[in-house]
Write a structure and sequence with these properties.
The complex is a heterodimer of chains A (390) and B (516).
Chain A: H1 6-36, H2 41-54, H3 56-81, H4 89-106, H5 111-136, H6 140-160, H7 167-170, H8 182-185, H9 196-200, H10 208-225, H11 227-237, H12 239-244, H13 249-272, H14 287-298, H15 303-321, H16 329-343, H17 346-360, H18 365-389
Chain B: E1 4-15, E2 18-29, E3 33-37, H1 44-51, E4 59-64, E5 67-69, H2 74-79, E6 82-85, H3 97-102, E7 107-109, E8 112-114, H4 116-129, H5 144-157, E9 162-166, H6 174-189, E10 193-198, H7 201-207, E11 210-215, E12 218-224, H8 230-238, E13 256-266, E14 273-283, E15 287-291, H9 298-306, E16 313-318, E17 321-322, H10 328-333, E18 336-339, H11 343-347, H12 354-358, E19 369-370, E20 373-374, H13 376-389, H14 407-420, E21 425-429, H15 437-452, E22 456-461, H16 464-470, E23 473-478, E24 481-487, H17 493-500
Parallel strand pairs in B: 3-10, 3-11, 6-9, 9-10, 15-22, 15-23, 18-21, 21-22
Antiparallel strand pairs in B: 1-2, 1-4, 4-5, 7-8, 11-12, 13-14, 13-16, 16-17, 19-20, 23-24
Helix pairs in contact in B: 14-15
Classes of the chains: A mainly alpha (390), B alpha/beta (516).
């Protein structure tokens, strides 16, 4: 029997794990629907599953929401590949939004320059935890969580003190808690629609989805095909071995966080330059960045997988909106969050599926070797610990 | 009349993808020392884990004194008076010796620990068997030899009649090995039965009465040690004839490639120096071995030489160039190759394919990349070449996930990668750790070939046999200091053992140059 290509079979395992997690997430969502409002549970479930494709306008909304999500997911996935947990995506996303909007409104720059500002803003914010990790060995999770809050308050404070940024500056309005609509403030900064709006009959859609998909492909190329990607992954998989190989781990940690930050920042830019969203000054972290984490997990950190998983999450979110009025907003959030977060159990599933495969292939020589290696590894790890203690 | 205390009959234990024990029968007589011999992965540990209740076999029976028993956990084993000294000791580092011995078998009076009787019993046992321990010392403060005696006392304290020793000599000096063997003989004389797991043939010849050989999960046979020879046992273990003698050409040493002067490396947690004023040199075409007991500064010394850790003081030269503060990459590019102590921690990225691991130190070379893009066709061609040349066994060629390869083949991959770089200096640390006889033979030949080719080799190993058979010169490290420098031709295990344990020390001037 011809053995399948190992990369291929690994890919299959990942895909199966993701699909299984999605199924479990949906089942739990269904159960929640029953608990919250049994009489509309099945129709509600149907709506979650079908709304996204019901009309071209809904599909446009799915794509529109998926673009920033995809970029945040890429950000988290890219950092994961380097062995870093970028929980700061939401802060970088906020910073990206702020930089893009400042460029667009305060500086009256066109959309492509504004997107560049967004990337740079996110990158700088990503660099801080990267530098702390690389030079002082400060855990990036702690730094980036703190910077999420620092960024949110700093951005709110800045916008409050930039009268030009606010709605009431541009239109006869008393609204002071959100940024100006871009169509009033600087139409040149609104992302082009590329004809998609008439095609899909939607105000939401723009070229953001293409930007996100292109970013995913570029990230995939970098990770799979380049020397830089090889080094990054080596650092992520085994920091000791990369050090042994002479790879400059510190530089790579910082670069990896810079790129991850730039991706999240770009996400913020893409969302707020669509012309339909306004940044609202509230004291809460934006969910978009955090949702990048389940998107990355569901995709097993594969950039191409992120395209699919972000579309899925966006699809479910759009479907969830259609649950009103039979379900109240908060309950919908709970249901959707449950589906999304359980879907992110893909990694766990992967382990189980791998085990299942092993049991089914008693004659598989590779498994035999793997077991031997594992037993040996156990012994050697113990020996290493011993040595470290001594 | 049945004179077997323990019988394991037709034991079969399967794991996903592997039959670890295939219909194995092992019969232990009362008062005998029974060796269990086999290569890594032959199923020795699994068989003992079955006896100790850690695994349940799919089929087969265990009899104690002729009666069928069920051992479903270590407590059952303990009740049947079966005790085990694990290869990696199971001791609480911050407890005293006495506390460790009674742990799990404490006597209490209304919830209050009663240690007086226990202490008396422990001291009696020490006297009776000549096992020297200080009951009040903390485990972290005593050496491995004494830690092992604590493990043995744990078994004796529980009145165990069947004592299992899992690779007990791996961490001991030759002198300590002699003492251990004496103790084992004493136990056997007292009527205790001993199962002795090992892959060292001379130890079996020295102490065992009978030996059962396992190979790839199958029982090959049980023989009386008196009726067999080392060569016969080796053949049973490996399945073919093994050549133990290492053919080494005469030494043609050239100029010094590696020179180390007054090197100090500080410990990570304490102010104590892990490497203390070490000076030596290694010349072209010469193998210098560093012998020593685990944890005496070998790791830190190697890390300082290879750039993984910074030296606190002193100088390191490759050729004429000082590399004390050079980066790992700079050192590698100057011709330093390093077979690391821990192949999973440092040597390989297990999530990478074999081909990707084989270019771990040369991926940036124009041969393997163009304008920042990896040339995978070249990388796979390179992998195929090395797989062929170094006989690396792998299921799917260069695409094989490194994780799925056996330890021996992973090690061969590292050796292939490091030697393919045509190093002028090879630092090989524990190059055959955990490998089977065949792979050991192979890697030894490769290291000798590198020496022939004019490479300077620094060999650091805990296996004294390995150091003695490969090296031209032997340095002994104890507590971070080089305490001896001997010509390998005249070195004896006994002499080296004394140096290794710190009992003896050569007067070495600080400018200790190795001269032929």
């Amino acid at each position: 029997m011809k053995k399948p290509h190992p990369r291929f079979s690994q890919g299959i395992t990942s895909l199966m794990a993701s699909l299984l997690s999605v199924a479990i997430g949906l089942l739990v969502g269904l159960a929640l629907l029953y608990v919250l409002n049994a009489s509309h549970a099945l129709t509600g479930f149907g709506k979650i599953l079908t709304t996204g494709l019901a009309t071209s306008e809904k599909l446009a909304k799915v794509l529109y929401q998926a673009s920033p999500l995809m970029l945040c997911g890429l950000s988290v996935a890219f950092a994961f590949k380097t062995g870093l947990f970028n929980i700061g995506a939401t802060g970088q996303y906020t910073m990206g939004a702020f930089c893009a909007l400042s460029a667009a409104i305060a500086l009256q720059l066109p959309w492509y320059v504004a997107l560049l500002f967004a990337m740079v803003g996110g990158a700088i914010l990503g660099a801080i935890p990267g530098i702390c990790k690389a030079l002082f060995n400060v855990n990036e999770v702690i730094t980036s969580i703190m910077f999420n809050w620092i960024t949110m308050y700093a951005v709110n404070l800045s916008i409050n003190n930039m009268p030009m940024m606010l709605t009431n500056y541009w239109a006869k309005s008393s609204i002071k808690d959100r940024t100006a609509p871009l169509l009033d403030a600087n139409p040149a900064a609104v992302l082009p629609k590329g004809g998609l709006d008439t095609l899909m009959n939607s105000n939401y859609i723009n070229i953001g989805i293409f930007i996100a998909v292109i970013a995913a492909v570029i990230i995939w190329l970098v990770l799979q095909k380049t020397v830089f990607g090889y080094e990054l992954k080596a650092c992520g998989y085994n920091r000791h071995a990369s050090q042994y190989a002479g790879i400059n781990a510190k530089r790579n940690i910082i670069l990896s966080m810079v790129i991850a930050g730039a991706l999240s920042g770009l996400g913020g830019g893409v969302y707020y330059l669509s012309g339909t969203g306004q940044y609202t000054l509230i004291k809460a972290l934006l969910g978009m960045g955090f949702n990048g984490i389940p998107v990355a997990l569901l995709a097993s950190s594969n950039p191409i997988g992120v395209i699919l998983s972000s579309l899925f999450v966006s699809y479910i979110q759009v479907g969830g909106d259609a649950l009103q009025p039979h379900f109240i907003k908060e309950n919908i959030d709970i249901i959707i969050a449950a589906i999304i977060y359980l879907s992110a159990f893909a990694l766990l599933m992967k382990g189980w599926i791998a085990k299942l495969f092993l049991r089914n292939s008693l004659e598989n020589a590779n498994a035999e070797i793997a077991l031997e290696t594992r037993l040996e590894a156990g012994n050697e790890n113990a020996a290493v610990k011993k040595g470290e203690q001594a | 009349m049945n004179d077997y205390v323990i019988e394991m009959l037709n034991i079969t234990k399967k794991f996903p993808g592997i039959v670890a024990n295939d219909d194995i029968t092992l019969q232990l007589r009362k008062g005998e020392i029974h060796a269990l011999l086999g290569e890594n992965g032959a199923g020795k540990s699994t068989l003992m884990s079955v006896l100790f209740g850690l695994y349940q076999p799919e089929s087969g029976t265990i009899k104690k004194d002729g009666k069928v028993v069920r051992i479903s956990n270590p407590n059952d084993a303990n009740r049947l008076h079966i005790g085990m000294v694990h290869q990696h000791f199971k001791l609480v580092e911050v407890f005293t010796v006495l506390d460790n011995i009674i742990l799990g078998a404490e006597q209490t009076c209304r919830g209050i620990l009663q240690k007086r009787d226990a202490r008396k019993k422990v001291l009696e046992l020490c006297d009776r068997y000549g096992l020297q321990v200080d009951p009040d010392a903390l485990i972290e403060d005593i050496g491995v030899g004494m830690q092992q005696r604590v493990e043995i006392l744990k078994m004796l304290f529980r009145d165990n009649e069947i004592l299992i020793f899992d690779e007990p000599t791996a961490v001991l000096t030759p002198q300590e090995i002699d003492e251990l063997m004496q103790s084992m003989r004493n136990f056997a004389r007292e009527g205790k039965s001993i199962l002795f797991i090992t892959h060292k043939l001379n130890e079996i010849m020295a102490v065992a009465d009978r030996v059962t050989v396992l190979r790839k999960g199958k029982g090959i046979g049980t023989v009386d040690v008196a009726d067999t020879t080392v060569d016969e046992l080796a053949e049973m273990m490996v399945g073919r004839k093994v050549n133990f003698s290492i053919e080494k050409s005469a030494l043609h040493a050239g100029e010094a490639v590696l020179r180390v002067q007054n090197l100090f490396v500080a410990g990570k947690n304490s102010g104590k120096n892990k490497v203390n004023d070490v000076s030596f040199s290694v010349r072209r075409g010469e193998i210098v071995g560093i012998a020593g007991i685990d944890g005496n500064g070998q790791t830190e010394l190697v890390h300082a030489l290879t750039g993984l850790e910074a030296a606190t003081r002193g100088h390191i030269f490759i050729g004429e160039r000082e590399i004390t503060t050079a980066t790992v990459r700079e050192r590698n590019n100057m011709g330093l190759s390093h077979i690391p102590e821990d192949r999973h921690k440092h040597g390989l990225v297990l999530d990478y394919s074999l081909a990707e691991n084989l270019v771990l130190k040369s991926y940036f070379d124009p041969d393997y990349q163009r304008a920042g893009f990896l040339r995978f066709d070249e990388i796979y061609r390179h992998a195929d070449q090395l797989i062929d040349r170094f006989d690396i066994r792998c299921g799917q060629g260069g695409l094989t996930p490194t994780k799925s390869m056996s330890g021996g083949n992973q090690q061969k991959a590292i050796v292939a990668r490091e030697l393919d770089l045509k190093p002028s200096l090879l630092i090989a640390v524990q190059p055959t750790r955990g490998l089977d006889v065949g792979a050991i033979e192979y890697i030894h030949r490769q290291i000798l070939a590198a020496r022939e080719a004019g490479c300077a080799v620094l060999l650091v190993s805990l296996e004294l046999d390995e150091v003695m058979s490969l090296s031209d010169h032997i340095l002994v490290i104890h507590d971070g200091e080089l305490v001896a420098n001997v010509d390998a031709k005249y070195a004896t295990a006994q002499e080296l053992g004394l140096y290794m344990s710190g009992a003896s020390k050569q007067t070495m001037n600080s400018e200790c140059e190795v001269e032929a």
